[in-house]
Amino acid sequence: MEKIRIVIVDDSPFSITLLRDILEENGYEVVGDAGSLEEVKEVIRDKKPTLVTMDMTLPGTDGLECTRAIHEIDPNIKVIVVSSMMDEEIVKEAKENRVSEYIQKPVDPDELITAINRIMASEELYHLLETESFPVFKESLLDGVNRMTKTLLNYKEEYSTNTEHESKGLTVIIGIIGKFSGRMLIDLSKETAGNIAAALLRRTPKNNDEMVAAIAEFTNIISGNACSILNRKDKAYGLRVSPPSILYGDSVHISAPNFKTTTAIAETNFGEILINVGFTRGEEKWM
């Protein structure tokens, strides 16, 4: 894990000294501190920290406004609120503003260090999933086509995207939940879908409903197998698939998710298959 660089936001010199001592004694690098909104913006741009400890009461502003300003500069910076104030409403607001943890003063050193370790371990796990997931889903599609139709496929193109997707005729979307949430999308033309369904059924589909049901279950199997492989790599993922959502027809457009996805185009004996996969950090689980 990379060295964690921390900025302390607090208007109390005593609190800054106390937090700095706790953090540095535990091997963290404190790269700066701030006591106002403008100082927060300046130190974040200058020091580029990994994590910020945030007081809630500051002159002319508050911890939530400062947190929003931090995430406008870099949405990946983690924020831990360290404040004397702690009630149900303010904790709810903190969650809504993407605060990762909330600790009440007086600070317990063990509680603070445990919170930091938990947050950063989660971040490292997410980056690992970003790296590992798409090759696993591609391999699952290749293996599924091979096992269920006794044919091979070749990948000819791969790219990252976060734009709207226009379907070629049939799109199946599988939602994924767990430690992190995401989706897998399979898209293909009606002709390709019919050809694959015939290979899966070992006969011509009786109607469109039967063809669509075959492709939906095919997609469900691909995504389920991929999630199982990822869970075996690290059980902390805890990935599960939701029932497929099916979009079928002409001029179907799928909205872009609010996270980056990766797409590959596979050539098969039945026509082209597009696979698209992506994950997001989702809501932090705390309190």
From TrEMBL:
One of its GO terms (biological process) is phosphorelay signal transduction system. Gene3D superfamilies: 3.40.50.2300, CheC-like. SMART domains: REC. It holds the Pfam family CheX. PROSITE patterns: RESPONSE_REGULATORY. SUPFAM superfamilies: CheC-like, CheY-like. Residues 5-120 form the Response regulatory domain. The modification 4-aspartylphosphate is found at D55. Keywords: Chemotaxis, Phosphoprotein, Two-component regulatory system. InterPro entries: Bact_response_regulator, CheC-like_sf, CheX-like_dom, CheY-like_superfamily, Sig_transdc_resp-reg_receiver. May play the central regulatory role in sporulation. It may be an element of the effector pathway responsible for the activation of sporulation genes in response to nutritional stress. Spo0A may act in concert with spo0H (a sigma factor) to control the expression of some genes that are critical to the sporulation process. PANTHER family: PROTEIN PILG, STRESS RESPONSE REGULATOR PROTEIN 1. This is Stage 0 sporulation protein A homolog.
